[in-house]
Specification:
This protein is mainly alpha-helical. It is 79% helix and 0% strand. The chain crosses the membrane at residues 39-58, 70-90, 102-121, 128-146, 152-169.
């Protein structure tokens, strides 16, 4: 199995994770925040997106360097922590139950935000993915603070992963060639 096939498999996982993340939005709207339906979609999305981000990274790894790699690691670690937090929410553990839940949520949010910003800056510089995927990726944290559209912020985030994953899976680029095109 060569690296290109691994990258395509991980990109497909990113697409599935994005679809699962999109599924959170109608669940939150219909059944309310932290409903079991939304949390189930969130759990699946966190696992798939935490793995799939590496397929997105491998597509442009030769162009985004060490900062991009560190940003991807921060996003993956944040997805892992979020998976644990979602699982604990499914079990009924809240911020009032344990003293460590709220600081962990804050640290996780900061880790994710820094990872997202670093990844987006490096992705814009690399000019491999289209700008709309990066804009949607950065729109998620902004939309999370707007009460009228908070439930739909996850759909935007998921759509960005679907876009990133599609471009990686199809080995498409905007301006620069991918590593796999250059090696051929």
């Amino acid at each position: 199995m060569n690296m290109e096939r691994i990258m395509k498999g991980l990109a497909l996982i990113a697409i599935l994770g994005g679809i699962a993340r999109i599924g959170m939005a109608p669940c939150a709207t219909i059944w309310g925040e932290d409903s079991i339906q939304e949390l189930l979609f969130a759990l699946v999305a966190c696992i798939l997106m935490g793995i799939g981000i590496f397929g997105i990274y491998f597509h442009e790894a030769h162009r985004i360097g060490t900062i991009g790699f560190i940003s991807v690691l921060m996003i993956a670690i944040s997805s892992t922590i979020t998976t644990c937090l979602v699982w604990s929410a499914m079990l009924g553990v809240g911020t009032e139950d344990n003293d460590y839940v709220m600081p962990l949520k804050n640290i996780n949010s900061l880790l994710a935000l820094l990872g997202m910003i670093g990844f987006c800056v490096q992705t814009i510089r690399a000019r491999i993915y289209p700008i709309w995927t990066v804009v949607l990726f950065l729109l998620f944290p902004v939309m999370s603070f707007i009460p009228a559209v908070t439930d739909w912020a996850t759909a935007v985030w998921g759509l960005s992963y679907v876009g990133f994953g599609y471009y990686a899976y199809k080995n498409k680029t905007i301006l620069n060639r991918t590593y796999f095109d250059a090696a051929a």
